[in-house]
């Protein structure tokens, strides 16, 4: 049975293909279209999935869209009516936006793929999140909590799931909190207030929070109150996201927190203004964590289950995830590699397979590598054409060479195997570097990632030695499998792991099992033999504003535009020769014509 | 009036719009908004050209496109920094009304590009015309910016690069398609005209659509709004129970 899952039209669209109850391919549209966070209907991703499996659209048994478009339209229209007459500017935009394409998904999917309309199915947004979190996790029974900005109406839901080996699967949602009361929107409002991009830069707020003190917690608590039944409600007087499209927060919000940040001004943490923004970030982060921990604790008490599956965009908040693990009572917390909307494509397909078609449960591969594979020979051809130093070597020799490069403080662009699904680079499309000095962190920020100095870099460490360097609680290694938790760097190692230790002494560590990425694991060991510390800095292989690279040619063009010293794809190693570019006719030509 | 070199001489249409441009650029708010928009356009254009570098099979074009893309990214930064500097001096009061952007976009603003599907010759012809148009407009902007030397200097610097871009695209087009490069240029001109028409038509239909929807909003919606508000007042905050089986059918869009 072939089932295609699709998520699209909000942000970060994606497609995933499930064949005989097992995912065979999942890819975000942005990785193929090269437009970051691409929300367009994911035609390229669909094509890639079908090509990977070698099937035609008419061989699909079902195509599942990750939410119910008319239910979402119901919410948009109702909110516009409730905000009458303040919503008069937003109303035409919202209607044109929805009625243009979004509510006609059955017809659109049907016409794009040539499948009959009866094969096009719909899950609810939070059902998709729940399925993505539970059905991909190696647990048979777990509580499930999903939280994001908004789906159709739900913004947060709790429930449980159960699956029997080769037997039936159930996913129950007990209850939900509905729009406009949303933890995701609360966090996004502060994201906008702090001058960052909503739906994209929330992780910057989390990074900035470590530089501040939660001195404004009481003010943030005015925005969100707990309800007697244990849920929460936003005080809508402080928000405008539910009435206008122009601004998330109201004038009262400004009165409470002061003027918002100009997005074009860098945050200077040495000034009172910069510190105020950091304190705002720290305060909303604290309130978010407290709320999630309380909700998770209540769910644990209710279900009595040891495992929790977390889904939705809010589950990307690694600091909150670590606190949930530490304080909610759950022994293990599972967060999929793509907990956001992209992951809903895989969730919708699996939900349809297990629940709608009632197919028996099957164990799924426990890794994030569901995308297209990289071709080292493509890199070799391109680099040779441009006169760079190219070397093809077999595994051990290559690993030794790259370990030498890293030990010599060279920065390595590392591409191998299938592309990651989700926002984190987990060892197949990564920039790797020595993690020891602040100079390396500053160099990466300044010469490669071109990003704000307050944002931390993540480390990767073999599972066998993770506890030596990081203070990971029981159950933490699972959370750290896909970089979903933030844990303290052990005090005695902080001075030797400066590039990956955040200002508060923590790191969003990836704990690597050899089976998940054997070559990276071998590289970590080889690097450890040279330096005594088998830890590497691992950041996503992209430049600011661009999606993570997919093919070798994209890695190559990134390599040429920044100060990455060495590029690896498969078994090909390319060393940048600064003189290589001058050998090309570009400069000569430029001089001639300018 | 014009200090421009011959290749930077604005087109007749751009010269005609000089009084409008002078008015647009005279206001600090509008200047900031336009510089920020140019920054986005140049960066987007840079991404498109970078994509062209990634998809072309011609090694020389790949290197030239890459240089070009790096220039466009740098232009984006120059515009952004200048806008930030202006903002520092006089913070924006609001989004000023008329920007005139649909008339005179910068960089590649008029055109949506599907880089992956374009041949090298089509891409070069398109880029040549875009750069030529941008150079013409930027010459006007530079010349009406006499009251603001730093912004003028930004345009001056960018114009220098645009000249290189304009020339290399033409040279390479002649190399890639020695016999038919003029035909490609004409096709690209027609395609640009078609896109101008589409842009205007889309803009016009958007305005008409908004007007109709706004009228409907005030004429038809008030009773429904009253009902929706009444329902909202009765709604309890907190948890909503999800009825078991209520959402199990996957056929429904509701």
Report on this structure.
The complex is a heterodimer of chains A (about 600) and B (about 250). Chain A is an alpha/beta fold. Mean pLDDT of chain A is about 95; it is low at about 580-585. Chain A has three domains: about 1-65 and about 70-120 and about 340-365, 2-Layer Sandwich (Nucleotidyltransferase, domain 5); about 185-335, Nucleotidyltransferase, domain 5, CATH 3.30.420; about 370-580, DHBP synthase (Alpha-Beta Complex). Chain A is globular and about 65 Å long. Helices cover about 40% and strands about 20% of the residues of chain A. Chain A is built from 22 helices and 24 strands. The longest helix of chain A has about 30 residues, at about 270-305. With about 250 residues, chain B is mostly helical. Helices cover about 70% and strands about 0% of the residues of chain B. Chain B is built from eight helices and one strand; from the N terminus they run ααααααααβ. Chain B is extended and about 70 Å long. Chains A and B meet through helix 3, helix 4, strand 8, helix 13 and helix 20 of A and helix 3, helix 4, helix 6, helix 7 and helix 8 of B.
Question: What's the total count of β strands of chain A?
Answer: 24
The class by helix and strand makeup of chain A works out as alpha/beta
Please count the beta strands of chain B (DSSP E, at least 2 residues each): 1
Architecture (CATH level 2) name of the largest domain in chain A:
Alpha-Beta Complex
Structural class per helix/strand content of chain B? mainly alpha
């Amino acid at each position: 049975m072939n089932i295609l899952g699709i998520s699209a039209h909000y942000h970060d669209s994606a497609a995933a293909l499930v064949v005989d109850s097992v995912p065979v391919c999942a890819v975000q549209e942005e990785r193929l279209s090269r437009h970051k966070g691409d929300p367009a209907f994911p035609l390229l991703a669909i094509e890639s999935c079908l090509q990977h499996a070698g099937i035609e659209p008419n061989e699909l048994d079902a195509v599942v869209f990750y939410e119910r478009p008319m239910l979402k339209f119901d919410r948009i229209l109702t909110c516009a009516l409730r905000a009458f007459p303040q919503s008069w500017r937003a109303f035409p935009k919202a209607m044109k936006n929805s009625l243009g394409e979004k509510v006609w998904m059955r017809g659109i999917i049907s016409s794009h793929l040539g499948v009959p309309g009866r094969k096009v199915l719909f899950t609810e947004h939070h059902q998709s999140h729940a399925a993505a979190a539970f059905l991909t996790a190696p647990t048979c029974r777990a509580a499930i909590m999903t939280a994001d900005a908004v789906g159709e109406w739900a913004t947060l839901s709790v429930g449980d799931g159960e699956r029997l080996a080769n037997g039936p699967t159930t996913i129950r949602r007990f209850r939900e909190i509905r729009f406009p009361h949303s933890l995701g929107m609360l966090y996004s409002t502060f994201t906008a207030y702090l001058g960052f991009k909503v739906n994209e830069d929330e992780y910057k707020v989390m990074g900035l929070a470590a530089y501040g003190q939660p001195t404004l917690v009481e003010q943030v608590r005015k925005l969100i109150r707990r309800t007697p039944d244990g849920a929460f409600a936003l005080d809508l007087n402080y928000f405008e996201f539910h009435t206008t499209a122009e601004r998330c927060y109201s004038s009262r919000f400004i009165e409470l927190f002061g003027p918002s940040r100009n997005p074009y001004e860098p945050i200077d943490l040495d000034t009172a203004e910069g510190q105020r923004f950091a304190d705002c970030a720290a305060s909303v982060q604290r309130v978010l964590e407290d709320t999630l921990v309380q909700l998770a604790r209540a769910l644990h008490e209710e279900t009595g289950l040891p495992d929790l599956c977390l889904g939705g965009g809010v589950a990307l908040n690694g600091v909150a995830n670590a606190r949930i693990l530490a304080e909610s009572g759950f022994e293990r917390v599972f967060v999929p590699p793509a907990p956001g909307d992209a992951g809903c494509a895989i969730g919708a397909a699996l939900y349809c397979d297990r629940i709608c078609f009632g197919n028996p449960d099957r164990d799924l591969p426990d890794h994030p590598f569901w995308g297209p594979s990289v071709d080292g020979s493509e890199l070799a051809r391109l680099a040779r054409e441009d006169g760079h130093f190219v070397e093809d070597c077999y595994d051990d020799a290559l690993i030794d060479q790259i370990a030498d490069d890293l030990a010599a403080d060279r920065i390595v662009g590392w591409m191998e195997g299938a592309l990651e699904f989700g926002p984190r680079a987990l060892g197949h499309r990564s920039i790797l570097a020595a993690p020891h000095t602040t100079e390396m962190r500053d160099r990466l920020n300044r010469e490669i990632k071109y990003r704000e100095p307050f944002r931390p870099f993540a480390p990767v460490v073999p599972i066998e030695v993770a506890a030596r360097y990081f203070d990971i609680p029981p159950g933490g290694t699972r959370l750290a499998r896909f970089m979903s938790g933030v844990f303290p760097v052990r005090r005695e190692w902080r001075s030797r792991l400066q590039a990956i230790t955040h200002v508060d002494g923590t790191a969003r560590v990836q704990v690597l099992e050899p089976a998940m990425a054997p070559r990276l694991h071998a590289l970590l060991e080889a690097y450890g033999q040279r330096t005594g510390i088998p830890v590497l800095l691992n950041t996503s292989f992209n430049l600011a504003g661009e999606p993570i690279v997919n093919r070798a040619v994209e890695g190559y063009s990134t390599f040429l535009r920044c100060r990455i010293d060495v590029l690896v794809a498969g078994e090909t190693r390319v060393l940048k020769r600064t003189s290589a570019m001058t050998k090309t006719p570009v400069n000569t030509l430029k001089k001639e014509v300018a | 009036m014009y200090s421009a070199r011959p290749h930077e001489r604005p087109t007749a249409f751009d010269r005609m719009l000089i009084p409008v441009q002078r008015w647009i650029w005279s206001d600090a708010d509008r200047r900031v908004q336009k510089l920020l928009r140019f920054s986005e356009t140049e960066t987007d254009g840079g991404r498109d050209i970078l994509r062209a570098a990634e998809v072309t099979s011609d090694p020389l074009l790949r290197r030239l496109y890459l240089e070009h893309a790096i220039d466009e990214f740098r232009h984006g930064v120059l515009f952004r920094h200048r806008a930030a500097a202006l903002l520092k001096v006089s913070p924006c009061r609001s989004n000023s009304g008329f920007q005139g952007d649909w008339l005179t976009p910068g960089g590649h603003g008029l055109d949506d590009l599907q880089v992956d599907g374009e041949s090298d010759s089509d891409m070069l012809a398109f880029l040549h015309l875009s750069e030529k148009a941008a150079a013409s407009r930027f010459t006007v902007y530079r010349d009406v910016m006499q009251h603001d030397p730093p912004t003028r200097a930004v345009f001056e610097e960018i114009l220098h690069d645009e000249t290189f871009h304009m020339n290399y695209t033409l040279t390479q087009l002649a190399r890639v398609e020695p016999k038919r490069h003029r035909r490609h240029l004409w096709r690209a001109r027609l395609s640009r005209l078609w896109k101008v028409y589409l842009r205007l038509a889309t803009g016009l239909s958007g305005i008409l659509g908004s007007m109709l929807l706004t009228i409907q909003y005030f004429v038809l919606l008030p009773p429904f709004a009253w009902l929706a508000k009444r329902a909202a007042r009765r709604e309890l905050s907190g948890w909503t129970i999800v009825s078991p089986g209520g959402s199990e059918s996957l056929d429904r869009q509701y």
